[in-house]
From TrEMBL:
Residues 1-19 form the signal peptide. Keywords: Hydrolase, Signal. This is SMP-30/Gluconolactonase/LRE-like region domain-containing protein. Residues 133-307 form the SMP-30/Gluconolactonase/LRE-like region domain. InterPro entries: 6-blade_b-propeller_TolB-like (IPR011042), SGL (IPR013658), SMP-30/CGR1_Lactonase (IPR051262). It comes from Mycoemilia scoparia.
C-alpha cells in the first residue's frame, strides 16, 4: 500500500471513529526494523503461563519460532518426524497445559497440513510430534485452543480472485485423535478465537470479487467443546457496515479474560476492540506496522497487547508494537491459573 493511500485511509477511519465517539489509542514500538530478529512473515503470536510472548518466522525462517517478549530468542526450529522438511511452514502458535503439569506448544504447519506439538521437558529435552492433521486441510493458517480439554480448532484459506464457499475451512481435533475433523466450508477464513467460557467460537470470513477484497466479517458460532461441534452461525461484526473497511482483511483475533475481542486490521495499521456483545469499544493505532498480522496479550500480568507484522519502513523485517490494557488475556489467565500477581518469567 502506498503511503498516500495509507494516510488517506487512516484519516478516513479516524474520522469515522471520532464521529462514533470511539477512542483511538496509540501503540508503542517494541521491536523495530533496526534490531528485529524476525522476518516479514512474523505471525501467529502466542503466550505461555509466564506471560512470555512468541511468534513465528524467527531469523526469517519458515520453520522457526521464537520469543518477542521479554526478549528475542529462538524457541523451536525444525519439523515433526514424518513431515516434509521442505514444506514445513509455521504460521501459528498456542500453548496448553498438559496433564502432568507440564506444557506444550501447538504449531500450525501450513505446508504439511497439520498441527505439531512441541514439548520442552524439565530435563531440557525437546520432543516433537504430529498432533493431528489431514491432507484436505487448506493450511491451517491460524489455530485456537479450548483450554478445558486442549481441543484445537483450525482455519485456513485459498486466496483466489473470486472467492467461493470452500476457499475457507474450519477443522478440529482432540488430543489423542491424530485425525482432524472438518466442521465446515466458508469464504476465505483466517482469524479464529474462543470466548473465555468456551461457549462461543469466532471466525473471520472474507470475500474477493474481480481480484478485489469486498467484504470482511467476523462470524460467531455456538460451541460445544466436548464434541467440537459448532452451530447457530451469526455475523458478529460486518466491517463494511461498521466503518467502511470491508476491503481490509481481518487477521489475528484474541480475547481477554472478560471476553472482549481484539481484532487486527491487516492493511490500515489498526487493531479494533469489541465487547462480548459486539459493540466497538476502541481502536489502537500502530506507527511502524501497516499490515498487522497477529496479536496476543502477555507480559508479567497478561495485560500487554503485543501486535506484530512486517515493518513499514523495511519489509524484510518483522516489527512488534505494544499497548497496555486493563484486563489480562484469556490464554494467559487460563495457563497461569488465573493468577492476579505476576508469575516468574524467563527474564526474572
Amino acid at each position: 500500500m502506498y503511503l498516500s493511500s495509507y494516510v488517506f485511509g487512516i484519516a478516513a477511519l479516524a474520522s469515522v471513529a471520532l464521529s462514533q465517539g470511539v477512542p483511538v489509542h496509540q501503540a508503542k514500538p517494541l521491536i523495530t526494523k533496526d534490531h528485529s530478529q524476525f522476518g516479514p512473515q512474523i505471525e501467529g503470536t502466542g503466550v505461555d503461563a509466564q506471560g512470555n510472548v512468541y511468534a513465528v518466522n524467527f531469523n526469517a525462517l519458515k520453520n522457526s519460532t521464537g520469543t518477542i517478549s521479554p526478549k528475542q530468542a529462538e524457541f523451536f526450529t525444525g519439523n515433526a518426524p514424518g513431515s516434509d522438511a521442505e514444506k514445513t511452514w509455521y504460521n501459528g502458535i498456542r500453548f496448553v497445559k498438559l496433564s502432568d503439569s507440564g506444557s506444550a506448544a501447538y504449531l500450525a504447519d501450513v505446508g504439511n497440513h497439520q498441527v505439531v506439538q512441541v514439548t520442552k521437558g524439565v530435563n531440557g529435552k525437546t520432543s516433537v510430534e504430529r498432533f493431528c492433521g489431514d491432507s484436505a486441510i487448506l493450511q491451517p493458517n491460524d489455530i485456537t485452543v479450548a483450554h478445558s480439554n486442549n481441543r484445537v480448532f483450525m482455519s485456513g484459506m485459498n486466496y483466489t480472485a473470486d472467492s467461493k464457499v470452500g476457499d475457507g475451512d474450519l477443522w478440529t481435533c482432540l488430543p489423542g485423535d491424530k485425525k482432524a475433523v472438518k466442521l465446515g466450508e466458508f469464504y476465505r477464513t483466517n482469524g479464529i478465537e474462543i470466548s473465555p467460557d468456551e461457549k462461543t467460537l469466532y471466525l473471520s470470513e472474507s470475500q474477493n470479487k474481480g481480484g478485489a477484497v469486498v467484504s470482511n466479517n467476523i462470524l460467531k458460532f455456538d460451541l460445544d467443546v466436548a464434541s467440537g461441534k459448532v452451530s447457530n452461525k451469526k455475523v458478529f461484526v460486518d466491517f463494511g457496515a461498521l466503518d467502511k473497511t470491508g476491503d481490509t482483511d481481518i487477521d489475528g483475533m484474541r480475547c481477554d479474560a472478560k471476553g472482549n475481542l481484539y481484532v487486527s486490521r491487516n492493511g490500515i495499521g489498526k487493531v479494533a476492540k469489541f465487547t462480548p456483545d459486539g459493540k466497538l469499544d476502541s481502536y489502537i493505532q500502530l506507527s511502524t506496522i501497516d499490515f498487522v498480522g497477529s496479536l496476543e496479550l502477555g507480559g508479567k500480568d497478561g495485560k500487554t497487547l503485543h501486535m506484530v507484522g512486517r515493518c513499514k519502513d523495511d519489509e524484510k523485517k518483522g516489527c512488534v508494537e505494544t499497548f497496555n490494557v486493563d484486563t489480562p488475556g484469556n490464554a494467559f489467565t487460563k495457563l497461569s491459573g488465573g493468577n492476579s500477581e505476576p508469575v516468574k518469567r524467563c527474564d526474572a
